[in-house]
Automatic annotation (TrEMBL):
<dbReference type="InterPro" id="IPR027417">
    <property type="entry name" value="P-loop_NTPase"/>
</dbReference>
<feature type="domain" description="Helicase ATP-binding">
    <location>
        <begin position="70"/>
        <end position="237"/>
    </location>
</feature>
<protein>
    <recommendedName>
        <fullName>Helicase ATP-binding domain-containing protein</fullName>
    </recommendedName>
</protein>
<dbReference type="InterPro" id="IPR014001">
    <property type="entry name" value="Helicase_ATP-bd"/>
</dbReference>
Length: 589
């Protein structure tokens, strides 16, 4: 049937990808599952290996790389990663949080004798990286790479950086920052690697994926080229993703189909088994170094706490759920906005634009953004500003005049987001928790962190991991008091193992972010017998976000092999049945 169908579709200039998945033919194809392909055969033929601890390898590399007065030693996984990079010219390293990626990123240039290495990092880790580099150069011999932040590389002014500097080694730490193929920074890396496939690429992250094979397949290709154990053709990659990914819409998931070739004899080819079979094929490939071991030698506990909230918050939830409006009467147009406001209300406040924008301003902005998204998909430009410049210069056609309409009205309104507080109960709860013994209060919303700092006098560490006086969060434990920390500013790259008590005010609704956050204090070097994360859950959206994070963690552990802290932890949160029993309560509907 497939051959005949493909011929019929080809006459119409279409492929099976164009079929509606819920149509009759689409459903048949999804039941049949992933098709066999030359790409699957190529991947099956790739040699396999299981890297093992090799003390002699670490010793030999230390002799080569360590300074005469250096005393640090390489971990086995660091030695294995450096060897693979040396032998293959590329490295894909999904190594757990706290697993030793920093030193690998510094020594990479030395083992391949790169002349123009660059190190890509998040901007918030720039100062920390420079401090760590200076400290490690006391123990190790390595050239100083040019440090570039992902944020800077995505700007218009950096559009020609690669062509000008011509790096011969790209080291991408926290490489999940490159997962979005539509982002300017990713498009620039992709263009450079496509034109210069011999450039060596080393990619590392403790959270390599959120929910999809599409998050990292292109990164594996940059690292390993034709030896990449992932499909190199987009249509085949999309089929595999539709079979393996987490959180697919109803009717979208493909059956494993030909992917059962990855399974061991006797394995049941269900979703979990197929993910694990793919993980074995990925992590047993040369050039891929992944951690599988469980974590540090201490327990991890996650416990839900329901905060008390007043009648004003319940009334706001009633308005939100029944009228789809914020407490001040502003209409909500989509479920994402509803979700966001519910999570704010569960913290005792909500954000609003003050004043509200005119309707015509919003409509012009909406149409222009839609045009920009479409243009980025089909043209070699990377950002909204470049699209605007292209339209203004006549290089990009805009027959409907979206840019001129938006340009004419853009500056007539300036957005000003302000918090509106309904209840301080959550702040008071967090302060009582912080008073019991030293710990970190993790906050998602800047408004919450600032208000708590103002009311309690506790230091709030946010931008660049600093407080208002410029003190670094890594040094805060010396004062023996609890602190407030921005999740966005501190969930990556911070070594906070001096703490073992944590309170998450608003849980992150994805496994990638939660893995990073839990890894700040539950990591190597932690001296306590147990690490505790108390999690506030004041509404169904916060609970559902935590459950989605756990589902993401199962996907990541099955498909990549990285042991996930959310699955390792002893978790005490409401069950789905317990939440269902509260469905008549306005905050739990």
């Amino acid at each position: 049937m497939a051959g005949i169908l493909n011929k019929m579709l080809a006459r119409a200039g279409k492929t099976v990808e164009d079929l509606n998945p819920i149509s009759r033919v689409g459903k048949i194809l999804r039941r049949n599952g992933v098709r066999d392909s030359n790409e699957l055969d190529r991947i099956l033929r790739l040699p396999r290996r299981k890297w093992e601890d090799a003390p002699s390898l670490a010793s030999d590399l230390q002799t080569w790389l360590r300074t005469h007065w250096g005393t640090m030693e390489l971990r086995p996984i660091q030695a294995a990663a450096l060897q693979e990079l040396h032998d293959l010219g590329g490295l894909f390293a999904p190594i757990r949080v706290g697993g030793g990626k920093t030193l690998i990123s510094f020594l990479a240039a030395a083992v391949v004798e790169a002349e123009r290495p660059i190190l890509l990092i998040p901007a918030k880790l720039r100062d920390k990286t420079r401090r760590e580099m200076a400290a490690l150069q006391e123990h190790w011999n390595f050239p100083t790479p040019k440090i570039i932040t992902y944020e800077w590389l995505g700007r218009v002014g950096a559009a020609e950086f690669f062509e000008t500097y011509q790096p011969d080694l790209i080291i991408a730490d926290e490489c999940h920052k490159l997962k979005n193929m539509e982002a300017a920074v990713t498009r620039r890396v992709n263009r450079y690697m496509s034109k210069n496939p011999k450039v060596r690429f080393a990619a590392m992250s403790g959270t390599i994926t959120m929910r999809s094979l599409r998050d990292y397949a292109h990164i594996v290709e940059w690292c390993l080229g034709s030896f990449a154990p992932v499909p190199l053709k987009w249509t085949i990659l999309s089929e595999w993703a539709d079979a393996l990914d987490e959180k697919l819409a109803d009717g979208q998931r493909l059956a494993p189909g030909a992917l059962i070739k990855l399974c061991e004899p006797g394995e049941t080819p269900d979703l979990s088994a197929t993910r694990k079979a793919f993980r074995r094929r990925l992590t047993e490939s040369y050039g891929v170094i992944a951690t599988h071991e469980k974590y540090v030698g201490c327990s991890l506990y996650i416990t839900a706490i329901e905060p008390p909230l007043n009648e004003a918050v319940d009334e706001a939830f009633t308005t939100l759920r029944t009228l789809w409006e914020t407490p001040d009467g502003w209409p909500i147009s989509d479920g994402i906005t509803m979700w966001r406001h519910a999570r704010e209300l569960a913290c005792g406040f909500y954000y609003k634009w003050d004043p509200r924008p005119p309707r015509e301003w919003l409509e012009a902005r909406k149409q222009w953004c839609k045009f920009v998204r479409t243009t980025l998909k089909h043209r070699p430009v990377d950002s909204e500003l470049q699209v605007a410049q292209g339209v203004a210069a006549g290089r990009i056609p805009d027959p409907a005049g979206f840019y001129e309409t938006w340009k004419a009205i853009r500056d007539t309104f300036k957005t000003n987001t302000v918090p509106v507080w309904l209840d301080d109960s959550v702040i008071e709860l967090a302060d009582r928790w912080a008073s019991e013994s030293p710990g970190i209060v993790w906050v998602e919303h800047q408004a919450f962190g600032q208000r708590m700092a103002e009311q309690t006098g506790r230091h709030y560490y946010h931008r660049q991991g600093k407080n208002a006086a410029g003190g670094m969060i890594e040094d805060a434990h010396k004062f023996g008091v609890s602190i407030i920390a921005s999740i966005a500013s501190n969930k990556e790259g911070r070594n906070l193992q001096e703490w073992n008590r944590n309170l998450i005010v608003s849980v992150l609704p994805n496994g990638e972010g939660m893995e990073q956050l839990l890894g700040r204090t539950h990591r190597d070097g932690q001296q306590a017998d147990e690490v505790v994360y108390d999690v506030l859950m004041g509404c169904k959206e916060q609970w559902a976000g935590f459950e989605q994070a756990r589902a993401d963690a199962r996907y990541i552990e099955d498909s990549i092999g990285q042991a996930q802290k959310l699955l390792y932890a002893d978790v005490d949160v409401p069950t789905p049945d317990e939440v269902a029993e509260r469905s008549l309560e306005i905050r739990w509907r």
